[in-house]
């Protein structure tokens, strides 16, 4: 008698497992100083929260996400109830729709949390305790932000795109990998995310610095909303004197 794992269970658990596995790869690569956007010393000196607290915060958010995913799958039904032929065109449409929905939701909620002083002070500032981002801190948020920004955003992208639990396994695992990559603090040669997406580790690192906190709100895929609404801060990658790289705003922003 074989042991069957449902798509709903995989859709709940896979993104969590992927998060820690992919983060682990970047932890192993974090000693590559020549590819770091900040030195190891800066990471230890500038960040305002311990790594153990980050791990606890991420695990709490993932617990909430898992509960919401189970409820969502229960309400919407399972793949077994849908007799639908697999289509790459349908899959692509659902992926793109989900990406647009997630990006739109996160841009406006994220931006509002920066402009509303109460929300920033009491909620969103927790994420910005990581001035020097690192991979497994990607989902370190205040529980309210984790629920509103990521969990609700994910639920909306799932529902509006019309994807099945099976498709969600791949989409949310992909979105998780992308989010971790954006916070990894490294600029590695050959990184496909850097080649395909303008929204990447350097782009998001700019947002985590004081000079960029009112810019580069877009996450996790595109930079469209930043460009349309005037919050796009371009950058250049420059070599640091002590080794490694640094994302710096381009000249027009330096002159402001």
TrEMBL record:
The protein's name: Sphinganine C(4)-monooxygenase 1
Keyword Electron transport: no
Subcellular location: Membrane
Keyword Transmembrane helix: yes
InterPro entries, sorted: Fatty_acid_hydroxylase, Sterol_Desaturase_Related
Keywords: Membrane, Monooxygenase, Oxidoreductase, Transmembrane, Transmembrane helix
TM region positions: 12-32, 53-75, 87-109
Domain Fatty acid hydroxylase per the UniProt entry, residue ranges: 95-231
Originating organism: Noccaea caerulescens
One Gene Ontology cellular component annotation held by this UniProt entry: membrane
GO molecular function: iron ion binding; monooxygenase activity
Top-level taxon in the UniProt lineage: Eukaryota
GO BP terms, alphabetized: lipid biosynthetic process
């Amino acid at each position: 008698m074989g042991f069957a794992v449902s798509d709903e269970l995989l859709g709940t658990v896979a993104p969590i497992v992927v998060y820690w596995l992919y983060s682990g790869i970047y932890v192993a690569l974090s000693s590559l100083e020549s590819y770091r956007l900040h030195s190891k010393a800066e990471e230890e000196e500038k960040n305002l929260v311990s790594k153990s607290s980050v791990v606890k915060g991420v695990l709490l958010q993932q617990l909430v996400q898992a509960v919401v995913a189970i409820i969502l799958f229960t309400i919407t039904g399972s793949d077994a109830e849908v007799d639908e032929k697999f289509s790459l065109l349908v899959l692509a449409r659902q992926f793109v729709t989900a990406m647009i929905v997630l990006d739109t939701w996160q841009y406006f909620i994220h931006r509002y949390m920066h402009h509303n002083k109460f929300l920033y002070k009491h909620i969103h500032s927790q994420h910005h305790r990581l001035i020097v981002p690192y991979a497994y801190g990607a989902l370190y948020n205040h529980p309210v932000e984790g629920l509103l920004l990521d969990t609700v955003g994910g639920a909306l992208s799932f529902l509006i795109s019309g994807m099945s639990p099976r498709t969600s396994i791949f989409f949310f695992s992909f979105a998780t990998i992308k989010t971790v990559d954006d916070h990894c603090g490294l600029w590695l040669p050959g990184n496909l995310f850097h080649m395909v997406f303008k929204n990447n580790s350097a782009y998001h690192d700019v947002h985590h610095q004081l000079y960029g906190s009112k810019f580069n709100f877009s996450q996790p895929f595109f930079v469209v909303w930043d460009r349309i609404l005037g919050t796009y801060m371009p950058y250049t990658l420059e070599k640091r004197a002590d080794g490694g790289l640094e994302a710096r705003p381009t000249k027009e922003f330096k002159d402001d």
